[in-house]
Amino acid sequence: MKVVLTGANGGVGRIVQQLAPGQSRMELAAYSRQELDILDKQALVDCLLFHRPDYLINAAAFTHVDQAEKTPDAAFLLNAGCLEGMTEACRKAGTTLIHLSTDYVFDGTKRTPYTEDDLPAPVNTYGASKRAGELIILAYPRGIVVRTSWVYSRHSRNFLAAIPGLLRTQSEPLYVDTLQTNSPTYAHDLVNGLFALTQSNVHSGLFHFTNTGGGCTRYAFACRIREMILRNDPKASPAMVLPMCTEVLGGAPRPVYTVMSPEKMARLTGMVIPHWQEGINNII
Ligand SMILES: NC(=O)c1ccc[n+]([C@@H]2O[C@H](COP(=O)([O-])OP(=O)(O)OC[C@H]3O[C@@H](n4cnc5c(N)ncnc54)[C@H](OP(=O)(O)O)[C@@H]3O)[C@@H](O)[C@H]2O)c1
Fold first, then answer.
1. Atom 43, ligand 1: which residue's CA is nearest?
2. How far apart are CA 88 and CA 90, in angstroms?
3. Residues lining ligand 1, judged by CB closer than 6 Å?
4. Which CATH number do you get for residue 263?
5. Is the whole model's pTM more than 0.90, yes or no?
6. pLDDT at 251
7. Which structural domain, as residue segments, surrounds residue 15?
8. Which of 31, 55, 126, 186 is the catalytic position?
9. How far is CA 104 from CA 29, 101, 262, 266, 284, in A?
10. pLDDT in tens, 229-273
11. How confident is the prediction for the chain on average, in pLDDT?
12. Total domains in the fold of the chain
């Protein structure tokens, strides 16, 4: 099976590159932004007609939530506008497109996990641009949208991945947010989920993929990391973790509860999706 990857140097893209060699009969052609700009429609057509892949995994996106408020045109262009060209290129090459989206398409007013049947109502520009992109992909007959949330790995450049290092090096307590409850997702599990879709011969539809366990706050995530550090090394002295309830000043509004249910994906692929606490073992 031939797979092309865009956004290859991003947090998800790097894990796709790392895990693809372990997939039997998968041939991956990975393209960073420098090698393939997804805003360049002709370059997309040329690339896909050259490879004629079974699947294109699009991990390229405008992902800076606060910056999207300041430059909405750029966010909409990358997260939605250019996807018309991408689906057109896929159509010409007979390729199924797997596109990643976000829990931020929801407004966060529910208190039970969001399913694929729940109505999106984004509260910020990033979420609105991602929702606009979803509609373009879902209108393509071979378009798959996989919504995910709080993706982290040992190499991620985000707060979740930074917590173990902060706890080990900081002497003062680490104050961590209790406002938002989301579903942390270990990047390797997400990528295994994307690969499971290709192996299940799925070619269209909307799916949620996160780790299971009903989600948590960043505070609960940090507490669990501290607990695991101490379990692995009872002599360790990680910093205390204390709760903090704050909004990012001047930042984009964020939905407070966006736990998603990955049940549809688990049923379809037969995957046993790990609990969010399991991924933590891989980053401490
Ligand atoms: N990470 C999360 O917590 C999370 C949560 C929910 C949904 N998602 C979704 O998952 C997907 C992947 O996210 P991620 O965490 O891997 O994001 P990321 O680390 O920000 O990576 C995005 C990648 O897109 C590339 N890119 C930007 N503009 C491009 C262009 N014009 N052409 C080609 N590539 C371009 C960037 O290139 P440079 O490296 O050159 O900047 C970067 O490598 C996104 O669709 C995101 O919305 C992520």
1. 10
2. 5
3. 6-7, 9-13, 33, 37-39, 59-61, 63, 78, 100, 102, 130, 148-151
4. 3.40.50.720
5. yes
6. 87
7. 2-155+184-215+258-277
8. 126
9. 29, 8, 16, 21, 27
10. 999 999 999 999 999 987 666 789 999 999 999 999 999 999 999
11. 96
12. 1
